Amino acid sequence: MARPRQFDEQDAVVRATDLFWRRGYNATSVRDLGAELKLTPSSLYRTFTDKHTLFLRALDHYRATDSAEAERRLDAAGRPVRQVLRDWMLWLVSCPSGGEPGRGCFVVNTATELGTADDQVRQRTEAAFEVTRQAVRSLLHQGRRNGELPSDLDVDAAVELLFTTVLGLRVRERAGHDPARLAATIDAALRTLDPA
Description:
The protein is mainly alpha-helical.
């Protein structure tokens, strides 16, 4: 008869997420994971198959929690669209998802570390990026419909500009750039939504 597991698998995924987020995929060894999760290599392999599979689970966990919080923050619900966007972008550069200063975004970090070299990772990072684009697109359409934004606003171009700004901001936050300068960048990006 198989012995029952002596650990909480979801808790192990959460702790692995934190470790991968702090160190990155390549700098995290199976030994590091075993020490962090308090698992022997055989238990780790028996439960998660390998480091890559555990990394994908960690990335999925982060995406689910980060996306849910971003969706909540992008809900305009009676608030001005520009203010919702500004608050969301400021949140992104102020250590969201329980992160620490200088950690950036796990998805952005992963995309910059692994790029297109790993198709399973690329699919996940692109899916996360598309969720962000769609949320911003929906908000901009709402602003255009209710008259807060110019009726001739090129929503697709604005989405790409804001999305690219967000990625740059998250890299700059990780690099330890001055939060006041990041806030000024956010305000400059949002001014592109003003009437010409």
